[in-house]
Amino acid sequence: MKGNSPILEVRDLLKTFGAVVAAKDINVDISQGEIVGIIGANGAGKTCFVNMVTGYLAPTEGSIKFEGTELIGLETRKITHAGISRSFQVSQVFHSMTVSENLMIALAIANNRGADALSLMDTPDLRSKLDAVLKRYKLEPHRDSTVSALAQGVRKLLDIAMAVVSKPRILLLDEPTSGISVEEKFDFMDIVMGALKEDGVTVLFVEHDMEIVARYVSRVLAFYQGEIIADMPPKKALADEKVQEFVIGKEHHKKRNRT
Ligand SMILES: Nc1ncnc2c1ncn2[C@@H]1O[C@H](COP(=O)(O)OP(=O)(O)OP(=O)(O)O)[C@@H](O)[C@H]1O
Ligand SMILES: [Mg+2]
Questions:
Q1: Which of 19, 52, 243, 256 has the fewest Cβ atoms within 10 Å of its own Cβ atom?
Q2: Shortest CA distance to 38 belongs to which of 221, 224, 178?
Q3: Is 33 in the pocket of ligand 1 (CB under 6 A)?
Q4: Which part of the chain has CATH 3.40.50.300?
Q5: CA-closest candidate to residue 106, choices 124, 82, 78, 80
Q6: DSSP string, 115-175
Q7: CB 164 within 8 A of CB 195
């Protein structure tokens, strides 16, 4: 279903917090199936952008249309129902429950069943959906593990798996690889991006790691002080003078300051 009209249309987005301008003059069209990397230094406005698209933050001005429907003013629940999802924050996962139990709850909610009684949710239909998700996200070996016992990479796979059970058309991820070791990061992204591409999900993800950006995205949006300063393919973006100065330079600076 690859039409010409964009799946997401963002127009003249503005967000201010008092004197702080978190988003300004944001105009962007996203086509179905694009894998978009959102980059930018600390405080550039990346999370605010994700929050506005997913309804967690109301813009000061502007319009965000999903398949022609205005999203601004809709509750997050309605936006999710329309087909836009985001990875669950760790706090939204039940730490004392197992991987399977968490996924069953997410599946039950996505399939409009109550999430209050696990026994009621345990139908053959949901079981087979659960098995499919566990397989696709390589979570089978961990299905009976308690979340609190999982390694960070596995926990993040669960977060994403829980966000996709509602079968979103667009998935937004805020720093999916943060906290994942250098050794694990490519395996993790191969699993996630492989699964999402198979389902034709359009992905927008915030990323600080330029190796991940170079390898997995088809398009880069570079943010600086709330504005998009570059919108281009990754190879071009990573070589761009402004991106070098205002994103990559500042990332190095930030990393140095962190350690
Ligand atoms: N609720 C809020 N109230 C006031 N200012 C806010 C609020 N949320 C964000 N900001 C400000 O908006 C700007 C953009 O913040 P945002 O969280 O989007 O940055 P970011 O690009 O995600 O940064 P990081 O890489 O550190 O996650 C920052 O200056 C931030 O301090
Ligand atoms: Mg952020």
A1: 19
A2: 221
A3: no
A4: 33-57+69-83+168-259
A5: 80
A6: SS-HHHH--HHHHHHHHHHHHHTT-GGGTTSBGGGS-HHHHHHHHHHHHHTT--SEEEEES
A7: yes
Strands 219-224 and 227-232, sheet pairing: antiparallel
Give the ligand 1 atom nearest the CA of 40. Answer: 21
Ligand nearest to the CA of 45: 1
**CA nearest to 36, candidates 61, 17, 10:** 10
Q: Is the Cα dihedral 16, 174, 224, 41 positive or negative?
A: positive
Q: Indicate the CATH number for domain 33-57+69-83+168-259.
A: 3.40.50.300
CA separation for the pair 48, 59 (Å, rounded):
9
**In the block, which residue shows the tokens 């100065």?**
245
Distance, C-alpha 128 to centroid of its chain: 25
**Minimum-distance ligand 1 atom for the alpha carbon of 48:** 18
> Can you tell me the distance from the alpha carbon of 43 to that of 173, in angstroms, rounded to the nearest whole number?
17
- Rounded to whole angstroms, the Cα distance separating 196 from 45 reads 25
Query: What is the whole-number distance in angstroms between the Cα of residue 145 and the centre of ligand 1?
Result: 35
What six digits make up the tokens of 116? 């209050």
Residue 48 zone, left/alpha/beta (φ > 0; ψ -120 to 50; rest): alpha
What pTM did the predictor assign? 0.91
Check pLDDT > 70 for residue 3: no
Residue 259 has pLDDT above 50, yes or no: no
Residue 195's nearest CA partner among 225, 165, 237, 233 is 165
Q: Average of pLDDT values for 71-84?
A: 93
pLDDT tens column, 16-59: 999 999 999 999 999 999 999 999 999 999 999 999 999 999 99
